[in-house]
User: What shape does this take?
Amino acid sequence: MNTLEEENELVRISREVSHQYEVANVMNTLREKPTIFEHVSGFDFPVFGGITSNRDIIARGVGTEKESLLKILVNALRNPTDCPLVSQAPCQDVVIQGDEVNLDILPMLLHLPGDGGRYGTATVAIMKDPDTGRNACYHRIMQVGKNKCTARLIPKRQTRTTYDKIEGEIEMAICVGNSVPVMVAASLGPPSGVDELKIANTLDETPLVKCVTKDLEVPSESEFVLEGRITRDLDREGPFVDLTETRDFERQEPVFVVDCITHRKDAMWQILLPGRMEHKILMGMPKEPTIYDQVSQVTHCKNVLVTMGGGSWLHGIVQIEKQTPEDGKKAIDAAFKGHGSMKHVLIVDEDVNIYDPIEVEWAIATRFQGHRDLVVKPDQPGSSLDPSGDHSGKKTRTTKVGIDATIPPDVAPENYSKVEYKEVDLHDYLR
Ligand SMILES: Cc1cc2nc3c(=O)[nH]c(=O)nc-3n(C[C@H](O)[C@H](O)[C@H](O)COP(=O)(O)O)c2cc1C
Assistant: This one.
């Protein structure tokens, strides 16, 4: 944030603002530019957000440029490294325990009228599974008591898998105010058993410290850590807006009891607007390396984009350098493996710019034939976020579709390439 401030890219709002809708509305109007709200009525802590709201600042946050981000993420995913352990940490400057714990001191926001309550959203949750070890991922939390929240634990993800497997409570630490590497790594969702904090450490050194009351390690530079337990009690969670910008309905979710709050002496509470750009980028972008990894196992993968139009979650475009006629179809299967929630995937050749929707549509228009190149997979496990999925059972079911818009085999490739006019110097003609 210092770097952003030096480069005049940090907005400071000094006027007093309310945590009820106002912070969220201002942040949205600012298009989620990195911002600090210095005075939030009724709270001692400033609020900040927007430090991962576009690919450029994420790239800078992991020490690279936008064009190299995919490679850097693929490398970190493939090569997690041990985090150093420290005994003294800024995130434990202040320790609040026992009866003193009161979530009312935290400027958790009310985002939109109709929300179920005050929510923490930039909330990286760390827990340990007895078999697969440490896991870090996001769980939004809604305050339901002085020291209690409900945590949204999506089925099949690690925390819910552990919760369903074991009896009793799970120790969990929720870290708020995290570095860009921690935020990105926590959204990667690598295979079970791969420690996201070690991935963060490959992106940039991420020292950890032992929690004060729990057998867990957390990033020592977090702003806040809520040390607690996922209990067997259930309470209401939601309604709350999710990635698709539609309202996710109210559910009964496990209660997270907070036993201890630790924070920096000058701590700032981090926010992340649900359904807006930062949420979308953090959800979709880290799926690009996991898709890339899978597709690379079956053909030469050149690039991957999880597109905004698909809510940055349901749609992907994969660019390949086709080696054999079957590569397009193989890439479709592999891409679905790389991102289990993806519903529609499109495969294009190297000459198609995947960042240009018109070029992508052109590839479908000129290279794709439905009877030959369409893959339809009915009744697949789908995303809970897709309102059109079948949500009647325990898990969402959906139809997945793959479109192979690569140049078909046994044709003259020149018939499928764009012709180029020659650029002339107009000065020669307009004199
Ligand atoms: C901003 C953001 C918010 C998220 N909120 C939740 C949530 O409330 N509950 C949840 O289960 N997953 C949520 N996720 C997705 C988890 O981070 C995802 O489950 C994780 O990457 C999967 O990895 P895991 O199986 O190793 O936990 C969120 C992701 C992001 C980027």
